[in-house]
Amino acid sequence: MQETPSLALTFLERSQALVDDELKRLLSASPAPSVRLSEAMAYSVLGGGKRIRPALCLAAAQAMGQDITKALVPACAVEAIHAYSLVHDDLPAMDDDNLRRGRPTVHIAFDEATAILAGDALQACAFNWLAQTPSISDRARLSMVAELAVASGQAGMVGGQAIDLESVGKTLTIESLETMHRHKTGALIEASVRLGAMTADPAPGDQLDRLTDYASALGLAFQVQDDLLDIEGDTNVIGKPQGSDLARDKPTYPSLLGIDGAKAHLQTLLDRALAQLDSFGDNAEPLRAIANYIVVRSH
Amino acid sequence: MQETPSLALTFLERSQALVDDELKRLLSASPAPSVRLSEAMAYSVLGGGKRIRPALCLAAAQAMGQDITKALVPACAVEAIHAYSLVHDDLPAMDDDNLRRGRPTVHIAFDEATAILAGDALQACAFNWLAQTPSISDRARLSMVAELAVASGQAGMVGGQAIDLESVGKTLTIESLETMHRHKTGALIEASVRLGAMTADPAPGDQLDRLTDYASALGLAFQVQDDLLDIEGDTNVIGKPQGSDLARDKPTYPSLLGIDGAKAHLQTLLDRALAQLDSFGDNAEPLRAIANYIVVRSH
C-alpha cells in the first residue's frame, strides 16, 4: 500500500503529460473563427486539473493489454466533456462559482455568453475527436460515440446535474444521493474506463463488465472523498472555498452518514472497486493505483 | 413557379409529420432521471417550427435516389442541434429573448439552469442518435458524426454565434457579415443536406459537392430573407418582435445593401442554389421546392 500512491502519481503524471499534449494538438487542429472563443476553450481545457478521467481511460486500455496511446483520443474526448460540464456548472444560473482550481472560472475570466459557447463547442469537439480515433475499427468508434453520448447526456451526467439542482435544500435518502451521483459524476467515470477498455477491439463482455463495476464503485468513492474534502480540506489546496456544499445546503455523504460513517463507506467502495481487478493481474496496476490515490488525495 | 411553393408545403408537411413522430420516439427511448429536464427537452424540440433543416436532409436523400426514411434519424439529429442552439441563443447572457415561435422561451417557461442543461442534453442526443442511424454502413455513420460535430462546433455554428456576439454595434463589411452567417446558420444547413445525401452510401463526391454548393447558397438566402422579414414582417407572423435586429444594432443585409439590394442579392443566391440541381432531374424537385419556399415564406 505504501507504493501505490507513488505509482499512481507516476502514472497520473505520465498520463497528464500525454493528454495535455494531445489536447493541445487536437484543439489547434480545428481553430475557431473567433479568437475569443478559441481562447476560452483552451482556458477551459488546458488550465490544469488532475486528469483523473483520461488517466482512467489510459489505465483501462493497459488493463486490457493494450498500448495506452491507443486510448489517447478517447481520453481527450472524455476530458473535453468533463471540461465543458465544469464550465456550464460554474455559470451564475447553475452553481455560480467564481473560482475553479484556484483560477477565475470561465465566465469570470471571459464572459457568460463566451462560457456557454465554449462549453457547447467543447462538447462537439469530443464527438468529432472520438469519431476519428485511430487504430480501432469503425464499429468500436461508433460504440464509443454512443457510449459517451449516453453517459454525458440526459440519462447520465446532465440528468445528474438536473437532479442535483432539484435537490438543493431537500433531505435526501442515501439511495437518492447515490442515484444523483451515479448520474452526475459516475456515468462519465464509467465511460472513461469503458472507452479505454474498448480499444481492445472487440473487448470481451465479461472483462468490460468487471471494469464497469470497478468504475461504478470508484465513481461513488470519488464523490464521498469530495464531500469529505469539502468539510476537512483547505481552500488553498482544494481550489474552491471549503465548506461550499454546506453553505449551499447541498446534501452530502457526511451530512447523511456522519464523517466516520462516510469514511467507512469510502473504504467499502474502494474494496469493492479493487476486487473487480483481481483477474487482470499486473496489467491492472495503474487502475489499482488510481483507486488508492483517489482515496488518499487531498484535493 | 406557381406550383413550387405548394409542392414545398406538401413536402414540408409530410417531412414535418415524419420528423415529429421520429423525434417523439427518439426522445422517449432514453428518458431522463429528471422529469423537469425531460419536459424542457420535449418543449424545446417538439414546440413546432418549420423543420426546414430536417426537410432539407430528407430532400437531399431523395435527390440521391434514396428512400427519404433512410435520412430520418440524421434529420432528427440535425433538428436536435438546431433546437439546442436556439435554447442557448435565447438565454439572458446571449440574445435574451423571451419569445420564440410565439411561445415563452425555455428559460422563461422553465428556468435558466434547466434551459442550459436541456440544450446540453439535446446536443448529446444528436450524436447518440446519429451513431445508431439504421440502414447505412458504420463508415457512413462515423462520417456523419464527424460532419455534424464540425458543422455545429467552434469551426461552424458555435463559432458563428461567437462572431455574431462580437459584431453587435460594429460596422461590418458584406464579406464579414457573410462569414458570420456561413458559420452561424450556413454550416448546419450544409450539414443537413450533406447528411441526407450521405445516405447514398457511398455518396459520389461530385454530387455531394454540388449539393453542398446548393446548401451554401441557400443558407445565405435564408439569412437574407430572415433579415428582410425582420424589417417587413409582422410580429404575429414571424413569432418574435419585428425590428428586433435593428433595435439591437445588429448588422443585417438590408442595413448594408438597402432593401432593394438585399432583395436582388436574395434572387442571385436562389438562382445559384437552383443551378446546382440541374443534373439531379426530378429527384431534386423537393430541394427546388424548398429553395423557392424559403424565398417566398412570410416567417
UniProtKB/TrEMBL annotation, chains A, B:
Entry annotated with the keyword Repressor: no
GO BP annotation list: phospholipid biosynthetic process; terpenoid biosynthetic process
Key words, A-Z: Isoprene biosynthesis, Magnesium, Metal-binding, Transferase
InterPro entries: Isoprenoid_synthase_dom_sf, Polyprenyl_synt, Polyprenyl_synt_CS, Prenyl_diphosphate_synthase
CDD domains xref list: Trans_IPPS_HT
PROSITE patterns: POLYPRENYL_SYNTHASE_1, POLYPRENYL_SYNTHASE_2
Matches recorded under Pfam families: polyprenyl_synt (PF00348)
GO cellular-component term (any): cytoplasm
Cofactor(s) required for function per UniProt: Mg(2+)
GO molecular function: metal ion binding; prenyltransferase activity
Record-stated family: Belongs to the FPP/GGPP synthase family.
Protein's recorded name: Geranylgeranyl diphosphate synthase, type II
Lineage: Bacteria, Pseudomonadati, Pseudomonadota, Gammaproteobacteria, Pseudomonadales
